[in-house]
Amino acid sequence: MPETAPSPDAPASTPHQRVLVTGGAGFLGSHLCDRLVAQGHDVICLDNFFTSQKTNVAHLLGQRNFELIRHDVTEPITLEVDRIYNMACPASPVHYQYNPIKTMKVSVMGSINLLGMAKRTGARILQASTSEVYGDPTPEHHPQTESYRGNVNPIGVRACYDEGKRAAETLFFDYWRSNGVDIRVVRIFNTYGPRMHPFDGRVVTNFIVQALRGEDITLYGDGSQTRSFCYVDDLVDVIMAMMEHGGNAGGDPETFVGPVNIGNPGEFTIRQLAEKVIELTGSSSKLVELPLPKDDPLQRKPDISLAKEKLGWEPRVPLADGLQRTIAYFRSVDLGSFRKPTD
Ligand code: NAD
Ligand code: UDP
């Protein structure tokens, strides 16, 4: 028997599984590992620790049903599993632009290696895709539905991530059509919560860390661009629901495989986010405006009708609650102990 009691959230019909989580030591991956371990599955967390540290999963290391492997997904690996969550990829602009060629390789070569594993073992495989496949949406495609094909600059500074993730989606759908691989694809919109890397440069971490240190809050541009922010617990719920939704997509062409938008449709300007963080931290930090990075999308908000219809899911955690939990986390950690992958 596993040492952890199955969580009350565990679907009764989900049998015991051997689950691989690539990028499992990262922000989203580590929360996913927590839930899978609590449900009693045998979890293999695979990570090269490019943007994460072992502390995110250190509490799981003693569990009988948890294993940690240091490995780079651009290299092949042989494992026997029933489920693969492909979360490995640097996710923040600062991280994915540090070595853009490697970023593209992670999405393309990583997907090829893991799809090959899924083909050999018959495992079901889920791809963590992204809202970035929509690029900078035009106003008539706001909010974004899954049928929107996007507006991505293929030679811009964000292309290594956006086009890499688009290529990964292509690979997933071709392995499904050509080889009957049992795929699922989710397009994740901005997600935040405890265990984000404090120096990943993403807006939620930057603003909270700046507010806690009493430093200026850096608005890029005038802060009128918008994003929608989903709390990590809501996101893990829907990723797992999508993985377990329907039958074997390789054998049943009617199974819903995605892509499906997942995120919180509440839309905020970046200035509103900054003001909320100042209010919740009680900080005396001031807002300053810096140049807007190149190709920065002006508006982003998911249409989650499909996730509601197919998975019966919608996010539950309001922004203020999620920010409070995230602020509590950043107050509790020693910021000086974090290694910056870009140093
Ligand atoms: P993260 O940086 O915290 O986690 C990514 C993990 O992947 C890290 O642990 C990193 O060390 C690992 N990794 C990177 N390259 C690797 C490689 N070559 N081999 C093995 N491991 C590698 O980021 P996150 O926010 O947890 O994102 C997880 C996934 O979700 C990513 O694929 C990302 O593109 C996707 N996603 C996240 C968001 C979000 O808002 N958090 C939005 C859209 C998509
Ligand atoms: N942003 C900002 N100040 C910061 C960091 C980010 O104004 O210190 C802006 C950024 O320009 C973008 C938004 O916040 O418009 C979200 O940025 P993030 O890097 O978190 O994610 P992404 O652009 O990939 O959605």
Automatic annotation (TrEMBL):
InterPro entries in UniProt: Epimerase_deHydtase (IPR001509), NAD(P)-bd_dom_sf (IPR036291), UXS-like (IPR044516)
Keyword annotations of the record: Cytoplasm, Decarboxylase, Lyase, NAD
EC numbers: 4.1.1.35
Record flagged with keyword NAD: yes
Domain of life assignment: Bacteria
Known cofactor(s): NAD(+)
GO MF assignments: NAD+ binding; UDP-glucuronate decarboxylase activity
Lyase found in the keyword field: yes
Gene Ontology annotations of biological process type: D-xylose metabolic process; UDP-D-xylose biosynthetic process
Main location: cytoplasm
GO cellular component terms given for this protein: cytoplasm
PANTHER family registered for this protein in UniProt: UDP-GLUCURONIC ACID DECARBOXYLASE 1, UDP-GLUCURONIC ACID DECARBOXYLASE-RELATED
Name used for this protein in its record: UDP-glucuronate decarboxylase
Subcellular location: Cytoplasm
Domain NAD-dependent epimerase/dehydratase residues, every copy: 19-247
UniProt xrefs under CDD domains: UGD_SDR_e
